[in-house]
Design goal:
The chain is mostly helical. The protein contains ten helices and four strands. The strands form two sheets. A two-stranded parallel ribbon has the order 1-4. Helix 2 packs antiparallel against helix 3, helix 2 packs antiparallel against helix 6 and helix 5 packs across helix 8.
């Protein structure tokens, strides 16, 4: 029995080509960008923010019922209001500063949240300022309050990233043939090539995985008795998760040259200080004595 090399090569190439799966097309998933009411469309992105904030509020209201809570329900209500302002105001200003400085040429465009979107890092700063204000006004410990806010943040991150996917935005880099879940997104800037659905990666890491870690730390351990540990863990965890996913996420068009020149995307550069801050506060909390009922709390 003899083999002919040309025929064998053709057979192997045909087998290999048949093994390569066709990419998934985002448009074939039947997703919509919101709920069309005829006269108005409620965007999924807006609903994601709303659901995340409400779930965070409800969870925080339940957390403070545990012994040793540093805040009361009236403080939770204040935080709900001021943190919402911090998320929206900080997120929008952060986007303009870090990703779209051209928006400052027409300041009214800052109010058009659908043009460009929001920045997590800006929202993070805005929430930090909101927590600081509420703590200053009520004489509360910033670190202990931040520890209670930290487990609530992944709710919004999870739903926000899912909304990014449903909107077909913030897609990933071009994927190889070995990624069977690669997807072609409809945006003209994405082109016809299959890409990583990096929005789902972020939802899984920043939202689901980090959220589970934070919930376990609060409800199943004594982490809340170490001021700064919960907050430090969240900041460190988010920084590491986002830094990793950025390798699969396509940099913003206006910052593609910046990413190529520096070797890191803007998102990764913004995560570096978060990782350092998280390490500092988590390590500091572990080295200092814990706060138990009946014991004096060390200074923050």
């Amino acid at each position: 029995m003899s083999f002919h090399l040309p025929a064998l090569s053709a057979l192997l190439m045909a087998a290999a080509s048949s093994a390569v799966r066709a990419p998934i097309y985002w448009e074939d998933l039947g997703l919509t960008r919101g709920i069309n009411l005829g006269f108005f469309t409620i965007r999924w992105y807006s609903l994601a923010y709303l659901v995340g904030i409400v779930l965070g509020y409800l969870h925080l209201s339940r957390m403070i019922r545990r012994p040793g809570s540093p805040l009361a329900q009236r403080h939770v209500d204040d935080l709900f209001f001021w943190c919402t302002l911090g998320i929206i105001g900080g997120g929008r200003l952060g986007y303009a500063i870090f990703y779209g400085p051209q928006l400052f040429d027409h300041p009214l465009d800052l109010l058009k949240l659908w043009q460009g979107g929001m920045s997590f890092h800006g929202g993070f700063i805005g929430v930090g300022l909101a927590i600081g204000y509420v703590c200053w006004r009520n004489g509360l410990s910033f670190l202990r309050v931040a520890d209670y806010i930290a487990p609530c943040a992944p709710f919004g991150l999870f739903f926000g990233r899912l909304a990014n996917f449903v909107n077909g935005e913030l897609w990933g880099r071009v994927a190889g043939a070995d990624v069977p879940w690669a997807m072609v997104f409809p945006d003209r800037d994405a082109g016809p090539l299959p890409r990583h659905p990096s929005q789902l990666y972020e939802a899984g890491l920043e939202g689901l995985a980090l959220g589970l870690i934070m919930l376990v730390l609060f409800w199943a351990t004594k982490a809340r008795w170490r001021p700064g540990l919960m907050m430090g863990t969240f900041v460190l965890g988010y920084g590491c998760a986002r830094f990793t996913v950025e390798y699969f996420r396509e940099p913003d068009v206006q910052l593609a040259e910046f990413a190529a020149r520096t070797g890191l995307s803007m998102g990764q550069w913004l995560c570096v200080p978060m990782i350092l801050i998280g390490l500092f506060f988590a390590g500091r909390a572990l080295l200092r004595p814990s706060v138990q009922p009946g014991r004096a709390m060390p200074p923050a």
